[in-house]
Design a protein that fits this description.
This protein has 461 residues and is α/β, with parallel strands linked by helices. The protein is built from 13 helices and 22 strands. It binds flavin-adenine dinucleotide.
């Protein structure tokens, strides 16, 4: 009998687990209540980057003089932008669903919850072809994956109205380009939204609770972003902790702990997320959550109930689509018995991540500040894009590549890139970190000329 594998949630974690388990011979049922591809497709990674790409194109027109062009100001077409965001998300969901179905995955549109250690109850979504609502049914499983993701956190002092006080999911497809957007939260999501709406023409104020945007990042990287924000006209309200929001007609005012008030036309909350674990029936299967509601997992992504796994944002580890997808793959391999050579543990410390601002920011592996905090000896080499031929040709020589290696062995331990295409370029360093390459290996590789990636090999020399 094939292994019966049930998956609740069709985001990156659920989709990758379904594809892998099905390839390995399981009979897979995946239940998704919204769209296949998950929040990543519908609300998070995809629509945000689609809007940022449009803003980036406007940015190119602003630098047109450096490219030998004389252009007038580009104006976003709101309706075309809405259609573009929706269409990309729909096409991605449709192609993912087709691919899973062609692999034999049973896709059910509906909501699921556990009703015991080996069973889930599925309430199918109403469909016109089935004449409305279908009756709930129970699906038994040998192994299950919980991959229900997370949703934006709304602090107790904030009332979201979806009109002028928004969470990220309400910002697209864009109903309007705010005249003056006040963003609360200067982590990755907050700074991406600052960049997105600034490049689309909004006036933007960013409320930064500490003295540095991106408080978890390398100070040099954060400083490069702050300088760019200031140059593009973003106002930074530093050391300001928001404690309330007041709406008055078309104006919204954020009240800060130190008495400061900041008024704009819209407020966007980007203050973290909460796991989607409520109503999942975890207690019926004995699955434990931590204080925050996340499902703690071991290195195989098993919950305290060994045949019930959790992956993606719900597992409370690195909240990235790429990490969720890799967890999903590892879950499927483990559930299908690939415990030995074919199945390696996921090393969260080697996950590359990027921030889609302008310039882009990306990093992987050990960071300089982290190494100093650990008292670890490192070698740091840095090459600015200002000396890179392709960066000059493209008219955007901002930023740098920083490579971190072990001074004794030359092994590449990590790196940060600030600059155009940093999210693509970091993959070169990510491979070096994962494969334990030495700086010498990177320096000896024959890169294309002219290419931005030459800055990586130059940093390795
Ligand atoms: C604004 C924003 C931008 C982001 N950009 C990036 C980025 O550029 N790159 C990146 O790597 N990460 C990015 N992330 C993070 C990324 O979106 C998440 O880490 C990723 O979506 C998590 O994947 P997941 O599989 O855990 O779940 P999700 O993508 O959250 O999907 C979970 C799915 O489960 C479904 N579900 C929930 N409960 C049930 C139920 N009971 N029954 C059936 N279905 C259910 C939901 O409908 C949802 O579709 C971003 C996050 C935000 C907020």
């Amino acid at each position: 009998m094939p292994v019966q594998f049930a998956i609740i949630g069709g985001g990156p974690a659920g989709v990758e687990a379904a594809a892998t388990a099905s390839r390995l011979g399981a009979e897979v049922t995946l239940v998704e209540r919204d769209v296949v591809g998950g929040a990543a497709n519908l609300w998070d990674c995809v629509p945000s980057k689609a809007m940022i790409a449009t803003g980036g194109a406007i940015g190119v027109t602003l630098r047109s003089a450096a490219l030998g062009l004389s252009l007038g100001p580009a104006v976003p077409d709101l309706e075309a932008l809405r259609r573009r965001v929706i269409s990309i998300s729909e096409r991605l969901s449709a192609s993912t669903a087709r691919q899973l179905e062609s692999q034999g995955v049973r896709l059910v549109r509906g909501s699921a919850r556990l009703v015991g250690p080996h069973a889930m109850e599925v309430t199918p979504a109403p469909t016109p072809s089935a004449g409305g609502a279908s009756a709930p049914f129970v699906c038994e499983f040998d192994a299950a994956l919980l991959a229900t993701g997370s949703s934006p956190r709304v602090p107790a002092w904030a009332e979201v109205d979806g009109e002028r006080v928004l969470v990220t999911r309400q910002a697209y497809p864009p109903a309007t380009i705010p005249e003056h957007l006040v963003v609360i939260g200067s982590g990755v999501t907050g700074v991406e939204f600052v960049h997105m709406f600034r490049s689309l023409g909004s006036r933007v104020t960013l409320i930064v609770s500490r003295q540095q945007v991106l408080p978890q990042k390398d100070p040099e990287v954060a400083a490069a972003l702050e300088a760019d924000f200031l140059e593009s006209g973003v106002t930074l309200a530093k050391g300001a902790r928001a404690i309330g929001i007041e709406r008055s007609g078309e104006k919204v005012t954020v009240v800060c702990e130190d008495g400061r008030t900041i008024t704009g036309s819209h407020v966007l909350l980007a203050v973290g997320s909460v796991p989607c674990s409520a109503g999942l029936g975890l207690e019926s299967a004995g699955v434990e959550t931590n204080e925050g509601g996340y499902v703690p997992v071991n290195h195989h992504c098993q919950s305290n109930v060994p045949h019930i796994y959790a992956a993606g944002d719900l597992s409370g580890r690195l909240q990235l689509a790429s990490v969720g997808a890799m967890q999903g793959r590892k879950v499927a391999e483990h559930a299908m018995g690939l415990h030995t050579r074919e199945h390696r543990h996921l090393d969260y410390d080697k996950a590359a991540s990027a921030i889609f601002t302008e310039p882009e920011i990306a990093d992987v592996g050990l960071a300089e500040a982290e190494a100093f905090a650990l008292g670890r000896k490192i070698r740091v080499t840095k090459v600015p894009f200002a000396v890179n031929a392709k960066a000059m040709i493209d008219g955007d020589p901002r930023g740098f590549v920083k490579l971190i290696s072990d001074p004794a062995t030359g092994t590449v331990l990590g790196g940060s890139i600030v600059g155009s295409r940093a999210a693509e370029l970091i993959s070169v360093i990510a491979i070096a970190v994962t494969a334990r390459l030495r700086v010498h290996d990177l320096a000896e590789a024959l890169f294309v000329h002219p290419a931005l990636a030459e800055a990586v090999s130059a940093a390795a020399e």
